[in-house]
Amino acid sequence: MSKKAQPTGAHKAHEVMLRRWITVGQPADRLYALWRDPATLPQVMRHFAEISVINDTEAEWHVEGPLKKSYRWRSRITDQQPGVVIAWESLEGADVPNEGMLQFRPAPGEWGTELTLTLRFNPPGGALGKKVTAFLDLFPKEQLSKALHRFKSLAETGEIPGLDGQPAGRHDSRKDEEA
């Protein structure tokens, strides 16, 4: 994480830091290129966010929170080293100030690449917001894990699995939002 993007003072006390990792059976350079493909991030994160890619280094995020509260921010890539790291941070005025980093490392035993996804953010509402975030799972570690699993599926099979069109004993009107 960049030092200038680190929250300071009272804001840092309310910061939430999440970290998840996964091994993907592909080389780091290929995974880096796939992550940087403008179509990838909106697909991988669609289970919790709408993302509009603005240009090569910026994207607009929209997340629906508890009680139908809507949060928006623009992010910018701050560091990119092919096959090594991609780092980003929200721009000034973000509803949820945040920064993130995706690191690529060789997996043990030539099993591909280990990806580590880290996110730091300041929940709206300070200390109370941090407690509400934890209680309501506004952005739990499971969201990061799910994003990494979706990326792994895309990288290894060329698609993200979904349930649409598969019989599961559910009503026909129900659609899987992840497809």
From TrEMBL:
Compositional bias segments (type: Basic and acidic residues): 169-179
Recorded superkingdom: Bacteria
Domain Coenzyme Q-binding protein COQ10 START: 24-134
Transmembrane helix recorded as keyword: no
Alphabetical list of InterPro entries matching this protein: COQ10_START, ORF3, START-like_dom_sf
Entry keyword Lipid metabolism: no
Species, as recorded: Mixta intestinalis
Chain residue ranges for the region called Disordered: 156-179
Protein name: Coenzyme Q-binding protein COQ10 START domain-containing protein
Family in the record: Belongs to the ribosome association toxin RatA family.
Keywords, sorted A to Z: Toxin-antitoxin system
